């Protein structure tokens, strides 16, 4: 009976207006109605990507779009740089290795960002790099890489394409694809875009299109040239995820009504509230303030508490559902997703319930310390 | 205001119960709730496939699943046979060529089936064929290939895997994957399965798994071994199309409530009604009775009528939405989809409106001849 409070870093809750939009009658993907829906909706996504380029919609998960970005630009044997600061950076490495690309991997310890100095130093001795891949928001650690600065380094130090995985943040963070010099930007539907999983977004710079036109990829479903060709007609090469595009249109309504700058500010505020609360409860967070993700916070196990038992208790007793740590961070952190259809009031709710759980586990803290700290950040933001 | 009567061969209308199921709250794809949903739902699809094998669910269109079937079993330079009797067979050829497979193409004129004799003769001089690809239901022409017989020929005449594209028919026609000897069977969500686009289904025989285990495909997102590995845990390698799996569960409710044999009989009946009506109206159909598809009928332009104008008129005036012809059949046929959430009453409605349109175009016919013929077939079926 109790509703599950889903605070994962994706999939995230769906707004009722999006659900209703998705319940509209199916239309043919070769009809004028569809062309109108496709053109209007993809145009509305452009400001969220900070681009004037076409937004290509793939009926797939984000991983497929990442693979598309890779296989359409690089050929087997060619050299690439992959920045990996966590599990999703490693994903990129796996994709590259599977396709026989020679990946130079810039690794940073989980919980740290890749700085522009890191990247500049790493690129220095390399030549003939075809592409540099970076995860904008590393979902496994809650780090937002400084993509704007990294883009600058790539442009200064190489001729490589700069390809960015924006899956777990686009829609909740600022990005200026054209202005910053991102060549391919990818995201998925089920994170800050407030949609169910199953739709991927790809946008490509003129520079990258030139490379793609020369590329001889064998990919069929993930062939970006087909998506471009059909997008010019307001359509997709195969049957698109029509319901999700209806939903996307409704998600754009919501973002436009709030104002995208405000959407970004809301994510920033939620992050600050969570971090202030954890500090007040003497619970560590994995990342420094400087590169902390506005969409997900990795929180350390509270001292003396078995994390797996604690998360199980929060879910069973309070219906509050967090994600655990991945890979080397399993059992050490939990991940609090605060993106998309999530509001400061949801943060207050979740922190109250975390405090309830901490009491059940006899964790020593001043009652309401966390919630008070979060409230304070919230109230200060109202005054601005 | 008028509701659009979508009679395309996919995407098809969505039952309200499916829409409502898809509006449930999103859950984590790594939760016990998801594992239960995934296991229960995929088990319910097995009888529709006629298999005891796992049903793998890809968050993608059917085309991606077809490509997965190809790239996971065949390697560049290897020889395959593709049976192409229309546009979707040609799709398969394109996929094979894109991947550098040597495709021997058995082509039949559009509107004809591939018989077991055709295939036996074609296979005779060939050796070392790795796989034979066949479209079960050719959506561009409305032909249901005799897949049961073709499977037998493949087994007798070669060691090749037999791979079947069931996209536009599975859920509405009989298929016994295990018994007939189909090695890989693929379908999509947006046809007879009564779901929105975005979910693909793949099932694989033990024999094909052995080949896949040896295959060195570079595919990452479409890697079937990953899907199998995760399916054994009741999950998918990446974020699945959760809402569509909720919807699939509701679609299974509907099919089980009707009884799958009855679902198949309903599709057969709808086909017979459409064909009887066209005959009574002296309007041709593209295909012979023997191989006529139970899910889509390709209807010839009524004599003396400009088809494009006629279809535009039906849509504008009567809100009845048919698909036109593809490729060489453009302007010559229209395609009447009768699959999934479509009932004999819908056929009566559509035929009535076709007759209205014919009157508007001064086509000469005995009033109500088509609808009477369809009614007769319908009433006779009630007596059985």
TrEMBL record, chains A, B:
Any one GO MF annotation of this record: L-serine-pyruvate transaminase activity
Keywords attached to this entry: Aminotransferase, Pyridoxal phosphate, Transferase
SUPFAM superfamilies: PLP-dependent transferases
Residues making up the signal peptide according to the UniProt record: none
Positions of the Aminotransferase class V domain: 27-299
PROSITE patterns given in the database record: AA_TRANSFER_CLASS_5 (PS00595)
Residues the record lists as binding substrate: 335
Stored Gene3D superfamilies: Aspartate Aminotransferase, domain 1, Type I PLP-dependent aspartate aminotransferase-like (Major domain)
Modified residues (N6-(pyridoxal phosphate)lysine): 191
One of the protein's GO biological processes: glycine biosynthetic process, by transamination of glyoxylate
Cofactors (names): pyridoxal 5'-phosphate
Recorded family membership: Belongs to the class-V pyridoxal-phosphate-dependent aminotransferase family.
Entry protein name: Class V aminotransferase
């Amino acid at each position: 009976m109790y509703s599950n409070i889903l605070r994962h870093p994706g999939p995230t809750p769906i707004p009722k207006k999006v659900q209703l939009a998705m319940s509209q009658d199916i239309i043919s993907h070769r009809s004028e109605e569809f062309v109108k829906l496709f053109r209007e909706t993809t145009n509305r996504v452009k400001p969220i990507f900070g681009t004037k380029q076409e937004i290509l919609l793939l009926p797939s998960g984000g991983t497929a779009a990442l693979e598309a970005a890779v296989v359409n630009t690089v050929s087997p044997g060619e050299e690439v740089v992959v920045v990996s600061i966590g599990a999703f950076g490693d994903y990129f490495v796996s994709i590259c290795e599977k396709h026989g690309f020679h990946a130079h991997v810039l690794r940073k310890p989980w919980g740290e960002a890749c700085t522009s100095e890191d990247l500049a130093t790493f690129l220095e001795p390399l030549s003939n790099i075809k592409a540099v891949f970076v995860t904008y928001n590393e979902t496994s650690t809650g780090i937002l890489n400084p993509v704007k600065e990294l883009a600058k380094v790539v442009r200064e130090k190489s001729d490589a394409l700069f390809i960015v995985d924006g899956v777990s943040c686009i829609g909740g963070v600022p990005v200026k694809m054209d202005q910053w010099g991102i060549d391919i930007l990818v995201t998925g539907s089920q994170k800050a875009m407030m949609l169910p999983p199953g739709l991927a977004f790809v946008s490509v710079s003129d520079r990258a299109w030139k490379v793609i036109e020369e590329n001889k990829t064998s990919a069929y479903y993930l062939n970006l040239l087909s998506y471009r060709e059909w997008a010019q007609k307001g359509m997709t090469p195969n049957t698109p995820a029509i319901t999700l595009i209806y939903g996307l249109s409704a998600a754009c309504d919501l973002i436009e009504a709030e104002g995208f700058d405000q959407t970004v500010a809301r994510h920033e505020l939620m992050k600050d509230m969570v971090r202030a609360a954890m500090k007040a409860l003497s619970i560590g967070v994995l990342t420094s303030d400087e590169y902390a993700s506005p969409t997900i916070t990795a929180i350390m196990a509270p001292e003396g508490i078995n994390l797996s038992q604690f998360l199980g208790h929060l879910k069973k007793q309070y219906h509050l559902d967090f994600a655990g740590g991945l890979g080397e961070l399993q059992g050490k952190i939990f991940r609090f997703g605060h993106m998309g259809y999530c509001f400061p009031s949801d943060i207050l709710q979740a922190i109250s319930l975390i405090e309830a759980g901490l009491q059940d586990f006899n964790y020593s803290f001043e009652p309401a310390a966390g919630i008070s700290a979060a409230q304070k950040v919230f109230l200060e933001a109202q005054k601005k």
